[in-house]
């Protein structure tokens, strides 16, 4: 219970609600040297409790609905990208140049799933775009030298570090000094009046009627907005036309949402019309990358008083790496997770991209809690999370063990994900997918909308 208590406190939640959470403990779920199962359970539990709290508030319920966290459901959802099938085809998760490489003095982790990142990586190394050439070039250079050169070229590469080395790093120290969830009020503006929910109408959808502008990519941010869509929000994902999302990734995280493309310069008027009617804006780009478009929390609140702005980044909005790009696999390498999970011969990895998924559920929880707080105190709000800060919590703050005093059921084994998978037809084909792990009494059990092709929807609210 200690871990969800910490997460719930970081979200500003009332500790009196924690007894509403119970856990189905399943041994064998998300096994690793680090307490990944406990991290995942805490993130999903906090999100479900935040959803139940907002639902009770909007429906006028006396009691917050009971929350049930099932390790099996959580473990399945945390690797949803691996369970996805599109007409029976398994997705591509990592490109050939996204991996660990031997260097002259250690190991380096690269990320080159996107074509523009791949081009910058091989451009910085001065080699053709093939694994053998990259391997030969890296074997002659130091990991830190390549890390600096690739980032200077706009690519993505980090040297493998131990937890001790990361703690001594200036960015590691900056991350450790920040709260798990940064949150606050931007002004005292009135929030938009939201219609009460009918407590007799099932399912209870805490985010019904809310409009969410989704400016996120990859996994963590889209997981957060996918969760808000599950809970009833009208989520519209907005991407730049020149930066298409990887198709399989979009299929996995696109449930419940619509997808459109806008150029934030040429299509400025259309974006401002969307913003004027939005309740929540979620961004997942490098800190400061969207500020030139007037998308900082302060600028958004000035143009849309009462908005909730949620920001996600890899390394945090502070320290020397604040403006660097990053992904879950890179954060695992830099913070020491890959070192802990590996061997003397080869770096390892968590059993899931748990930093992405865990931070995604925490981001959704932070939005839900901000909406609940708005119903009492008004004011535009911001919430901010970073993958590196979630990694710090996993390495130094999570306790390994059972559900403790959270009402956990007796231990059972996690053998097959079948009970937590479903299938549906879609415009993309027949999909097999992981069911959502966020569960509370009377709440939704699945999305009402399957993902469609990337960028295929009009830029308007339903």
Shape: globular
**Beta-strand content estimate:** 15-25%
Number of H- or I-type helical stretches: 17
What strand line-up does the widest sheet have?
7-13-12-11-8-9-10
Helical amount: 25-40%
Measure the end-to-end span.
Answer: 40 Å
Query: What is the number of beta strands?
Result: 16
Radius of gyration: 21 Å
Mean pLDDT over the full residue set = 94
Could you write a compact summary of the structure shown?
The protein is an alpha/beta fold and 462 residues long. 36% of the residues lie in helices and 16% in strands.
Characterise the protein shown here.
The protein has 462 residues and is an alpha/beta fold. It contains 17 helices and 16 strands. The chain has a seven-stranded mixed sheet with strand order 7-13-12-11-8-9-10, with helices on both faces. Strands 2-1-14 form a three-stranded parallel sheet. A three-stranded antiparallel sheet has the order 3-16-15. It is globular and about 65 Å long. The mean pLDDT is 94.
